[in-house]
User: Fold this.
Amino acid sequence: MTKKEIKRLTLTDLMKEKEKYQVKDDVTEVVLVERLGVEVVLRKPEKSLCVDTMKMGRDENNDTDADEYMVYNTMVEPNLKDPELKKVYGGTLPTDIVAKIFEPGEIALLSDIAFELAGYKKGGVKAVKN
Assistant:
């Protein structure tokens, strides 16, 4: 967007175009996992899930527990919480299924996309110099 295309948001805009500006909760994103040649669907995470995941962080070994947690809780297709899937793949923790299907880098990227759906990451907001 160029400087000319950017306009200052006004109260009139907010009132006239409520649907355009109101935060939506039912947001999903179809994501291609190239290595597998398949698409999966992630849903926008709730604020509490984002906060919990950020608190988990990554440890010094770059463990992806936080990313696995985010992916497990936001992937709606396929449903990684399906009990039959757990029987097939096994694992101790519910989130173990994520690492049994996706590579570590894929998990991190899927987690990043989920965060982006909630407005985190990728600098969607920045200061404007006058």
